[in-house]
Amino acid sequence: MDKRFQDKVAIVTGAGQGIGEAIALHFAEQGAHIVIAEINPETAERTAAKVRAFGVQAQVHVLDIGDHAAVREMVALVAAHFGRIDILINNAGVNERVDLMDITPEQWRWLMHTNVEGLFFTLQSVARQMIAQVPEAVKAAGRAPRSFGKIVNLSSVTGRRGRANAPQYAASKAAVISITQSAALRLAPYNINVNAVCPGLVETPMWDYIDLIEGQQRRGLPKGAWLQQRVEEKVPLRRPATCQDVAHVVAFLCAPESDYLTGQALNIDGGYEMD
Question: For labeling, which of 29, 144, 209, 230 is most exposed (least CB within 10 Å)?
Fold first, then answer.
């Protein structure tokens, strides 16, 4: 396989399972050193062991990305160890299925703390480091000859359209798209690319939770039946996405082939949303 990320340094938040783990392993397979930012120490170490099997370095930071001081410390430690940060994958996120009329302020703040606030300040901390890596001559010129960093934020097709039974999640993922656009504008003079991906129905532990609430508990369906029903009704390609499907698109957004792409939100949904 082409090692197109050979010796690049990539931070992946929420890399302990699901999409984050798939991204971490895909980048490691292509030669990147992986920094795993994960709240669960057991899943973080499990991913780290898989990453190291590719012959690259894995650094684990057990933290809540909503803890801004911990994120700043992680960025400083990564920069000190590797000398730079090339890639940030802002993947960590949470979900909760609650009807619009039943959400409490505590539930709203809990979800926004991770999905919006945590993502934003992680991006800010890493972006500051990426800017510091840009040579002064390039900064003075106001235009960089090549990319000096790649940032990919994980949004969702849910951020494209409201959801009555998950409005706080939909709002948080819409915010991710807006943050992506704002950051792309701010970081463009340094040729730091900022994009988002919007996965649709993906087979992940988060989907298992949604299937439990929506399929099994609310509708009395067997496990997995609601997912299959949603796929048949909503997805023209007639299958759910895999975590690897998402990882491949994220890799494209971090590769030289996407150097002229910034401020975009790409749907990875088999045609579920078309805009």
Answer: 209
CA dihedral 134, 137, 143, 148 (to 10 degrees): -20
Question: Could you please report the per-residue DSSP string of 98-129?
Answer: --TTT--HHHHHHHHIIIIIIHHHHHHHHHHH
- Round the average pLDDT of the chain to a whole number and report it: 93
Residue of 248, 160, 150 whose CA lies nearest to 198: 160
User: What is residue 227's DSSP assignment?
Assistant: H
CATH of 9-200+241-267, one of 3.40.980.10, 1.10.3720.10, 3.40.50.10490, 3.40.50.720: 3.40.50.720
Q: Is 144 in contact with 138 (CB distance < 8 Å)?
A: yes
Catalytic residues: 169
CA distance 205 to 136: 44
Instruction: Order the strands of the 265-268 sheet from edge to edge.
Output: 58-62, 33-38, 9-13, 87-90, 149-154, 192-199, 265-268
| Cβ atoms of 68 and 92 closer than 8 Å | no
What residue ranges of the chain are covered by domains with CATH 3.40.50.720? Answer: 9-200+241-267
Specify the DSSP element, H or E, that contains 195: strand 192-199
Query: Cα–Cα distance between 219 and 190 in angstroms, integer?
Result: 51
- What's the rounded Cα separation, in Å, for the pair 156 and 70? 26
Question: Which of 142 and 255 is assigned the larger pLDDT?
Answer: 255
Token pair belonging to 256: 């030289």
